[in-house]
């Protein structure tokens, strides 16, 4: 289990680096402390979101079933998380957004197979739960990102005035 946590944290930091480092390059006046703090905070958030993906999919599957599924909950395993680390590395702009998306679809398909086996849902229903959970978590994180950027921009304008 600790290997899974380490891989999720590494995937989260890599994902955050793909978003923060291009911004730091475009704004050379950013302090290294701010970049490092943003990288750590973003990495923890991204890692947490990745960690929640199977649980959110399982919860959606439970809503579709009349009786709770008999199996154990869907959890990350090292072989499922490893492609996410690669996907996070590929998140860097211009290094492969399409490959990044393909890896996430592949990981989602593996999660859907495990969810279908664990719950008794059909594969397509399980894939829908995995996709809805991933999309919902992604939209939530993007909304928080935009809010943080908006608040940061407002604070920066107020400090200049």
TrEMBL record:
Residues that span the membrane, as ranges: 34-60, 80-109, 121-141
Entry keyword set: Membrane, Transmembrane, Transmembrane helix
Domain of life: Bacteria
Protein name as it appears in the record: Integral membrane protein
């Amino acid at each position: 289990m600790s290997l899974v946590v380490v891989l999720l944290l590494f995937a989260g930091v890599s994902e955050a680096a793909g978003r923060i480092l291009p911004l730091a390059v475009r704004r050379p006046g950013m302090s290294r402390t701010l970049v490092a703090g943003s990288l750590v905070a973003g990495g923890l958030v991204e890692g947490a979101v990745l960690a929640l993906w199977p649980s959110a999919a399982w919860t959606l599957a439970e809503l579709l079933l009349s009786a709770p599924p008999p199996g154990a909950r869907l959890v990350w395993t090292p072989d499922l998380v490893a492609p996410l680390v690669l996907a996070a590395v590929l998140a860097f702009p211009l290094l492969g957004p399409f490959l990044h998306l393909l890896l996430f679809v592949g990981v989602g398909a593996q999660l859907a197979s495990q969810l279908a086996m664990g719950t008794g849902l059909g594969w397509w229903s399980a894939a829908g739960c995995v996709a809805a959970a991933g999309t919902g978590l992604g939209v939530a994180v993007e909304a928080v990102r935009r809010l943080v950027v908006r608040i940061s921009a407002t604070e920066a304008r107020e400090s200049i005035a």
